[in-house]
Amino acid sequence: MLTITLNSIIYSPENSDTNLMTEALKKNVNLLLRLEGKMNNLSRFFLQRLYNRNNTQGFTLIELLVVIIIIGILSAIALPSFLNQVNKAKEAEPIIIINGGNKNQSDYYIGNNKFTGDLGILEVPNQTENYTYQTQNIVPELSLIIAIPKNSTLRYFLGITYMENDGTLYQRVCKASQKDFLFNILPKIADFKLDKSEINELDSKYCGSK
Length: 210
Known about the structure:
Blueprint: H1 19-33, H2 41-52, H3 61-112, H4 119-122, E1 131-139, E2 142-149, E3 156-163, E4 169-176, H5 178-190, H6 196-207
Antiparallel strand pairs: 1-2, 2-3, 3-4
């Protein structure tokens, strides 16, 4: 592999003679142009333009447009990924808060044989920068902690704590879009009969580790 290093020339206002810079640049570009078999036509075209341009020339409108288009394409590719990572970071908050609330709810049930609707006892805030939190006890054996996003791009989160028929305390954190949360999760929770098949269905769709 052939490595070519361009001459390093420092320009300052005290030395306004740019001929040295021009000559050094032309010398190196001329050397590159002699490597006929190692450059494609596009590279040679831009190098030739660089060779023919003197230091007082700026960019053409077409060149500026090409740069703007390239930046636009890169932004279109990178921006969705960046926003997705930002949303994931924001959604980490309700997972941590609800997990803690579920644990505190279980501890409260063990000590009092009932669930509490007090967010303060559960150590769950009423709201944060990205979410508001509510708690509901649907039936004596079932308690919910609901995280409602303030931004429509974020998902809803639901903490479920309930006592199974065999006396086992069950805890889950579910996540879903607004549509799924309102039309698929809440109606099932409202009619919850603590049936194992319903639990498994909820788990597989919304409450797993995915």
